C-alpha cells in the first residue's frame, strides 16, 4: 500500500511562484501575436499567375456569352433606338358614371340578390346604401369582418375613377349616449369616417373623398317600426361628378368633370 505525502510550500516558495505567474500570460500573448502576423503575411501574398488565369477565364466566358446573345444585332435590341426600349404606356380611358353603375351592379350582384345592400342611380350620381347589420354592431362604429369584402369590391370599382366620393353616415331616431358616442351625430360621423378610411387604405384618392354624418336627420323609412329603423341605420357611398373646384394638396384647384 503506497502512501503519498503532499509537502506544503513554504512562504518563500509561494511568493516566488506568484511572482513568476505573469510569464504564463505573457507567453500566451506572444504566441497569439505571432500567429496573427503569420496569418496576415499569408493573406497578403497573392498568386499573380493564378489570378491572371482566373481573370482570363472569366473574360473569355462572358465574351462568348455576349456574342451568342447579341450575334447579328450590333448590341442593340431589334426595333429600338440607341439600345433603350421605348416605354409602353397604357392609355386608360376614363369611366363614365353609367359604366361605374353597371360594374357596381355586376360586382355587387350577390349582395343585391340577398337584399344586403341597395343601389340607386340617376344621370348625375350613383348611391350604394350599406345597412348597419352588414357593417357594424349595434351602437358601434368599427367595421365588422363580414363588411370588409363588400368595401373591397366597391374600392375596386371606384379606385381609378375621377369622381367625387361622398360617404354619409345615418342613424335612426332612438337617442344614444354612451362613453364613446354622446349622440347619434357622433355615431353617424364615426361610422362614415371608418368606412371612408377603409376605402382610402384600398387606394381611393383622399382629395376626392368627403365624409359626412347626418344622425337621424335624413330617414328613408318610418322610425315607428323596427324594420324602418333598421333601414335608416346605414352608410351611403355616393359617386358623382367632381365640382368645378376640387381639393388638392396645394389647395383648391379648378378641375373636375363637371360640365358646368
Overview of this structure, please?
- The chain has 260 residues and is α+β, with helices and mostly antiparallel strands.
- The protein has two domains: 12-41; 97-254, OmpA-like domain (60s Ribosomal Protein L30, Chain: A, 2-Layer Sandwich), CATH 3.30.1330.60.
- The chain is 42% helix and 15% strand.
- The strands form two sheets. The chain has a five-stranded mixed beta sheet with strand order 1-2-5-3-4. A two-stranded antiparallel sheet has the order 6-7.
- Helix 8 (184-200) links the parallel strand 3 (164-170) and strand 4.
Quickly describe the structure:
With 260 residues, this protein is an alpha+beta fold. The chain has helices at 11-20, 22-44, 48-69, 97-107, 109-113, 132-135, 148-158, 184-200, 226-232; strands spanning 118-121, 125-131, 164-170, 209-213, 234-240, 245-248, 251-254. Helix 4 packs antiparallel against helix 7 (148-158).
Helix proportion: 40-55%
Please give the CATH architecture of the largest domain: 2-Layer Sandwich
Q: How do the strands line up in the largest sheet? A: 1-2-5-3-4
What's the number of extended β-strand segments?
7
Low-confidence stretches: 87-91
Task: Report the top-level CATH class of the largest domain.
Answer: Alpha Beta
Q: Which percent band covers the strand fraction? A: 5-15%
Distance between the amino and carboxyl termini: 121 Å
CATH superfamily of the largest domain: OmpA-like domain
Please tell me the total number of domains. 2
Radius of gyration (CA) equals 39 Å
Could you name the CATH topology of the largest domain? 60s Ribosomal Protein L30, Chain: A
Main sheet record:
5 strands, mixed
- Principal-axes geometry comes out as elongated
What's the SSE pattern?
HHHHHEEHHEHEHEEE
Mean residue pLDDT: 79
Number of helices: 9
- Give the structural class: alpha+beta
Amino acid at each position: 500500500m503506497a502512501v503519498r505525502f503532499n509537502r506544503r510550500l513554504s512562504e518563500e516558495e509561494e511568493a516566488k511562484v506568484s511572482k513568476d505567474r505573469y510569464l504564463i500570460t505573457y507567453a500566451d500573448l506572444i504566441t497569439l501575436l505571432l500567429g496573427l502576423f503569420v496569418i496576415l503575411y499569408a493573406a497578403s501574398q497573392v498568386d499573380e499567375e493564378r489570378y491572371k488565369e482566373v481573370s482570363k477565364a472569366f473574360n473569355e466566358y462572358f465574351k462568348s456569352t455576349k456574342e451568342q446573345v447579341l450575334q447579328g444585332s450590333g448590341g442593340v435590341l431589334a426595333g429600338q433606338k440607341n439600345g433603350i426600349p421605348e416605354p409602353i404606356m397604357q392609355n386608360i380611358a376614363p369611366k363614365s358614371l353609367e359604366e361605374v353603375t353597371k360594374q357596381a351592379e355586376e360586382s355587387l350582384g350577390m349582395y343585391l340578390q340577398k337584399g344586403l345592400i341597395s343601389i340607386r342611380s340617376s344621370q348625375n350620381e350613383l348611391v350604394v346604401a350599406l345597412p348597419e347589420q352588414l357593417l357594424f354592431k349595434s351602437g358601434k362604429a368599427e367595421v365588422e369582418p363580414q363588411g370588409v369584402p363588400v368595401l373591397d369590391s366597391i374600392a375596386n370599382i371606384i379606385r381609378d375613377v375621377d369622381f367625387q366620393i361622398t360617404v354619409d353616415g345615418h342613424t335612426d331616431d332612438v337617442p344614444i349616449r354612451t362613453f364613446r358616442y354622446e349622440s347619434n351625430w357622433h355615431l353617424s360621423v364615426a361610422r362614415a369616417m371608418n368606412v371612408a378610411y377603409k376605402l382610402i387604405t384600398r387606394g381611393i384618392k383622399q382629395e376626392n373623398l368627403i365624409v359626412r354624418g347626418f344622425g337621424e336627420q335624413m330617414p328613408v323609412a318610418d322610425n315607428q317600426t323596427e324594420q324602418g329603423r333598421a333601414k335608416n341605420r346605414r352608410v351611403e357611398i355616393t359617386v358623382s361628378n367632381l365640382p368645378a373646384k376640387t381639393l388638392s394638396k396645394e389647395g383648391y384647384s379648378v378641375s373636375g368633370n363637371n360640365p358646368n
